[in-house]
Design goal:
11 helices; alpha+beta; 329 residues; three-stranded mixed sheet; four-stranded antiparallel sheet
Length: 329
C-alpha cells in the first residue's frame, strides 16, 4: 500500500514539475518598432529564464510562452516592453519603441507617428516657404501619407466633429486639398521673398558664394522654360525649395507664377498621395502583402527616381562644359 502511495506521489510531483513545460505553446509573434520596421535581434525574459531570438526580415519569431505568462522584450537601442500572449492583438504584434537618432529625421514615418497631419502640412509648407526644408523627405512623406490617408484625414474630421465618418474618397480629397493648400502657400511665400530681395541682388558684388551671372542664367532659364520650370521643380528634391525664390528674384510674372504654382502643386500632391494609396491596395490584392511592411525599400526607390533627373542634368552639364572647353582649346 505504502509502495503504491510513494509511486503515485512521485508521478504527481513529476507531473507538477513538467506541467509548465507541457503548457507552453509556440506562438509566431511579430516584433516591430514604432516606425513599423522589424526588430531583428532581441532578448525575451520570462519566469522560466532568458532567451535570445533572431527574427526574420519581416520581424517574425516563434516564441515559447505559457498562457498568461509575462514576457519582457529587450533590444539594443530600444525601450523594454512587456506583454502576455493572451493580451496581444489578433495580428500578434509587439511594438518595441526605438530610441531617437538623427537618421529618424529622414524617415517619413517619424513625422507620421509623432506629428500626424499637422506636421505633414508644416513640412510641405517649410520645403518652400521657410527655405530650410530642403533636407525633409517631401516625396516619400506624401507617398506614405497616401498609405495612411484615413487616420491622417480623421485628424481633420475631428475638428468639425466628424471623426470616423469619412470614407475612402472623402479622406483622399480632404488630404489632397489640405496638402495642396500648404504647398501653394509655401511656394507663394518663397516667390514673394524672391521678389523683395531680387532687385537688390542684381547690384550685389560677386563673392565666394554669390555670382551675378547665376542670376542672369536663371533669368534665361525661366524665360526659356516658363511655367514648366515651376511645375517640374515640384518633383525634384532641393530644387523645389529654391525654384519659387529664384522665380521671384528674376521677376517672373505674378499671374503666370500663380497659375503654374497651383498646377504643379496639385500634380505633385495628387500623384504622390494617389500613388501611395492605390499602389498599396493593388499590391495587397495581387501579392498578399502590404507596402507599409517595406517602407525602407519604397523610400529608397522614390529618392532614386526623384533625384535621378537632377544627377543626370549635373553630369550631362559637366560633360557639355568639358567638351566646349576642349573644343575652344
Amino acid at each position: 500500500m505504502i509502495q503504491h502511495f510513494k509511486g503515485f506521489l512521485l508521478v504527481l510531483i513529476g507531473f507538477m514539475l513538467f506541467m509548465p513545460v507541457i503548457a507552453q505553446q509556440d506562438v509566431r509573434v511579430r516584433f516591430l518598432n514604432q516606425y513599423e520596421g522589424p526588430v531583428s535581434e532581441f532578448t525575451l525574459e520570462t519566469t522560466t529564464g532568458i532567451k535570445d531570438y533572431v527574427a526574420d526580415k519581416e520581424g517574425y519569431a516563434s516564441v515559447s510562452l505559457q498562457p498568461g505568462e509575462k514576457a519582457v522584450v529587450k533590444a539594443v537601442d530600444h525601450d523594454s516592453t512587456s506583454f502576455t500572449i493572451d493580451q496581444l492583438p489578433e495580428n500578434k504584434t509587439v511594438v518595441v519603441k526605438k530610441h531617437f537618432s538623427w537618421k529618424d529625421l529622414l524617415n517619413p514615418m517619424f513625422y507620421i507617428i509623432y506629428g500626424g497631419l499637422w506636421m505633414l502640412l508644416l513640412i510641405v509648407f517649410a520645403e518652400t516657404g521657410l527655405f530650410a526644408g530642403f533636407f525633409l523627405p517631401g516625396d516619400s512623406l506624401l507617398f506614405v501619407a497616401g498609405i495612411y490617408s484615413s487616420p491622417l484625414a480623421n485628424e481633420a474630421w475631428k475638428i468639425i466633429g466628424m471623426d470616423g465618418r469619412g470614407n475612402e474618397w472623402l479622406d483622399l480629397l480632404l488630404l489632397i486639398g489640405l496638402i495642396s493648400f500648404g504647398g501653394i502657400i509655401g511656394n507663394t511665400v518663397g516667390f514673394w521673398f524672391g521678389r523683395k530681395i531680387g532687385p537688390s541682388m542684381f547690384r550685389w558684388k560677386d563673392n565666394l558664394l554669390f555670382k551675378k551671372h547665376y542670376l542672369e542664367e536663371a533669368h534665361e532659364f525661366y524665360d526659356k522654360h516658363g511655367g514648366g520650370a515651376i511645375v517640374f521643380a515640384r518633383f525634384l528634391p532641393v530644387v523645389r525649395t529654391f525654384a519659387p525664390i529664384i522665380a521671384g528674384i528674376v521677376g517672373m510674372d505674378k499671374k503666370k507664377f500663380a497659375f503654374y504654382n497651383i498646377v504643379g502643386c496639385l500634380a505633385w500632391v495628387v500623384s504622390m498621395i494617389m500613388g501611395g494609396h492605390f499602389l498599396q491596395l493593388w499590391v495587397k490584392n495581387q501579392f498578399g502583402f502590404e507596402l507599409k511592411e517595406h517602407l525602407e525599400v519604397i523610400i529608397i526607390v522614390i529618392v532614386l527616381v526623384t533625384t535621378a533627373p537632377v544627377a543626370w542634368k549635373v553630369i550631362s552639364g559637366k560633360r557639355k562644359k568639358m567638351a566646349k572647353e576642349k573644343a575652344e582649346n
